[in-house]
Description:
Layout: E1 4-5, E2 8-10, E3 13-14, E4 16-18, E5 23-27, E6 37-39, E7 61-68, E8 78-83, E9 89-94, E10 97-103, E11 109-112, E12 123-130, E13 158-163, E14 170-178, E15 182-190, E16 199-205, E17 211-216, E18 223-228, E19 241-249, E20 252-261, E21 266-269, E22 273-276, E23 279-281, E24 283-287, H1 301-313, E25 318-320, H2 328-337, E26 340-344, H3 355-372, E27 378-382, H4 393-407, E28 414-416, E29 431-432, E30 452-457, H5 477-495, E31 500-505, E32 511-512, E33 521-522, H6 535-544, E34 550-552, E35 563-569, E36 573-578, E37 581-586, E38 606-607, E39 614-615, E40 646-651, E41 657-664, E42 667-675, E43 682-688, E44 701-709, E45 722-729, E46 731-734, E47 738-740, E48 745-752, E49 758-764, E50 771-776
Parallel strand pairs: 24-25, 24-31, 25-26, 26-27, 27-28, 28-29, 30-31
Antiparallel strand pairs: 1-20, 2-3, 4-13, 5-6, 5-7, 7-12, 8-11, 8-13, 9-10, 9-12, 14-15, 15-18, 16-17, 16-19, 19-20, 21-22, 22-23, 32-33, 34-35, 35-40, 36-37, 36-41, 38-39, 41-42, 43-44, 44-48, 45-47, 45-49, 46-48, 49-50
Amino acid sequence: MLALVALLTMAGTPRDARLNTDWSFHRGPAASEGGWENVDLPHSARLEDDTAPSFHSFQGEVWYRKTLSLAPGWRGKRVALKFEAAMQVADVYVDGNLRTHHTGGYLPFEVDLSPEAGKGKPVEVKVMLDNRDHPEFNPGRSQSQLDFTYAGGLYRNVWLEVTEPTYIEDVFATAIKVSAEMAEVMIQPSCPKKTYGDELEVSLLDPSGAQVGSGVLDAEGKTFIKVKKPHLWDLDHPNLYRAVTHLRREGQTIDVLETRFGIRHLEFDHKRGCFLNGRSIRLEGANRHMGFPIVGNAASDAAQYREARKLKSLGLNILRLAHYPQSPAFLDACDELGILVIDPIPGWQFYRDDVPFREHVLRDVRETVMRDRNHPCVAIFETCLNETYNATDDFWRECSMVAHQAFGQGNFFTGGDAYGKKDYSKPLWDVPWTGWDDDHFSRPALYKMQKGIDREYGDYEFGGEQSTSRVGRGDGEGALMLQAWNFIWSHNRNRGNPWSFGDLTWEGIDTYRGMNPTSPVSKSGMLDLFRLPKTVAFFYMSQGARRPMVHIANQWSARPSPTKVVVFSNCSSVALLLNGKEIARLGPDSGPTTGYLGPKVADPLYWAHGTGEILPATQLSTPIGGATGALPFSGGNCQNLAHPPFTFEGVPYGAGQIEAVGYLNGHAVARDKLYTPGKATHLALRVDTHGRDLEADGSDFVFVYAELRDDHDQVVPNGSQAIRLSVSGQGTLLGSGERRAEAGIAPFMIRASHVAGAIVLKATAAGIADGNTIFKSVPRAP
């Protein structure tokens, strides 16, 4: 539970037991006994039809119920039902009596079942949830005005926790001194109802499981353990330690809690930059919403891991979890994979200047920090309300102060927007976000004495609601290349800003929107809604890849000749071959920085980088037009990039094969090739388990991609046929069984049953050969 390992505290009784199976669910007021269905958690209030022309996730009242058999031996124990989150007003009834009322859809709460323990009869728990608009707490805005959705339900795990009345509630573990030779770790358990004579002792285990230290608590309830030559947590070696805390009474252990954490030191030096364990790093990342197709926010722990791993594979080193606390399992995955995180409180363009609202915000700040402070991945706690302009500076300072108090001693930073500030000489946050200048489409430093982070870029500045960065995979080569150019042009500009620690794209993955029924999906992601990469994703892979890579950004369909070919690579040179013959070999682009070369949709003219100068389209060297070859890449605007693109001009078009070969030190180390697309002849099925097998827990799911392929076994980029998928065995289909391919691929989602075993898939489409595959689900790890 919340990064704590379940340990046995009494014979046969788990301290924390996952309670996700065999719930009953009813959508709407529970006025009758009819209409209940059996469900597993995480669970969405409604499976949504992503194929509908407009999208608005279900809002309203739903009910869950479960009958619990509390063991006779639990009489006198503390028994708690712990909810990781529930959207977003929760009333919990125990045997018909209201026991708990909780507000806010993103943070945990618990229900005390101790009065029922040991009575020898079943206990009925009912949970009423209501995710309708609620302006008394954040996010506050109605879904019709919100840029994401209040997808409802018991969408995270529920746990049953059994302890003695005196128990270890929480353990805070953090490194307060860090070097390659020695680290000092502070461990601070919280133990309600601790009495005279009770003893707390901590054992420290290194990543291999070996004990490297131990300690007893001092008068302040802390212990300090020194670790020689510590295994530091960093982006490439995410080493994790465990603090095992024992509560003993009269020599007998009555509770044990295991806490995972990392030893690392993060520094934001406003003159020198960002450092992790003394090594200079530039933060390069993306924003992430937590929604998935069809199931909304109801994603299993395994699905959260796959998502984090996929985002890491894009070459990103930091993620901003916009705009609310996300699943503890996602943070666990970032701990394990080596991804830094900006961890925000709930909030989006909404503030009420009244005491209850402000107190709720401060509660969110405190609970977010307390929940997540053991995660080494969390670099910054965002303790402001995103893009909220009307709160006072004093309130923002109070938010930051409450966060620091909740964390206590150690390596800790707050961050947030500076909008609405009156006095920029007094910073509100440890690490502020940079500003936004509408007149010049730039991101200035707002604090004279502080660097900041460009917390979003790549979307808004390219046309607002009509942004040319909002592109689907099926919108064609020109649109996808323009989106990539937008991101690259901005990223190059941002990396040249001396006042910035780093930048994060808006956004990593396409997301559902609540505010726009005619445009229900925001398509500014590097990955689409079903986690398939767009062209721009390969650029970011080239920036962060640990191994040599090369990727041809174009399609090789018929086009005017000569044409332009763009290659993304981290190699020192790239050769381009047409039908086996080398036609050019280049080093990375090194041309000058110019004005932006794409269209500003809101204005028929164009603007220049950082100056406000407007350039008519006739002055552009490469105007954007309808022709496939009219791509915005100029061979410049790249002097700040880690690995600039390779732009080949004047390439003669010829049907057949085009190949890019990447070279390092004169040796060919990476290849990519494309063929002129042919007619689709067969289907191929690809199951995206992405490092974590499908787990047979009744709720886990994976994406399956049915691909239209030609005689070269290449995905047909303009393929749009309808494809049907049938499923048998230990899995079921989520959503529609027939989808029209976009850019040659139709995505599906398969959910596991409760039994591990084979899942048989068959894809069919008119006039082409079927696709077949078999894969297996596995038992869920304890």
